[in-house]
């Protein structure tokens, strides 16, 4: 039992000290940050687009109701 515990301990220590594992974690963090930034910017962009279409719709409705042909 003690032998297995030592094997596990050394294997975990080897993984922690490994340079390759650190690179993988760094890439994962970069991908996560880029994804978060993309999601936040897309939500803001969607809101801006929605506002623009609402403004255009209101302007068209106002223009149609005030035109002389509509009476």
Task: Give a short summary of the structure.
By secondary structure, the chain is mostly helical.
Give unreliable regions as ranges.
none
Q: What oligomeric arrangement do these chains adopt?
A: single chain
**How much strand?**
under 5%
Shape: rod-shaped
Q: Can you write the helix and strand succession as a string?
A: HH
Residues in helices, as a percent range = over 70%
Mean pLDDT: 83
What class, by secondary structure content?
A: mainly alpha
Number of β-strand runs: 0
Number of helices: 2
Task: Let me know the largest β-sheet.
Answer: none
Spatial gap, N to C terminus:
93 Å
Describe this structure in words.
With 71 residues, the protein is mainly α. It has a domain at 18-51. Helices cover 90% and strands 0% of the residues. The chain contains two helices and no strands. It has helices at 2-17, 19-66. The N and C termini lie far apart (93 Å).
What is the element layout, followed by pairings?
Blueprint: H1 2-17, H2 19-66
List keywords for this structure.
rod-shaped; 0% strand
């Amino acid at each position: 039992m003690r032998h297995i515990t030592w094997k596990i301990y050394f294997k975990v220590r080897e993984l922690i000290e490994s340079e390759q594992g650190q690179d993988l974690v760094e890439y994962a963090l970069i991908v996560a940050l880029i994804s978060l930034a993309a999601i936040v910017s897309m939500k803001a962009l969607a809101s801006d687009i929605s506002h623009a279409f609402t403004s255009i719709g209101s302007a068209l409705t106002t223009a149609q109701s005030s035109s002389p042909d509509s009476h």
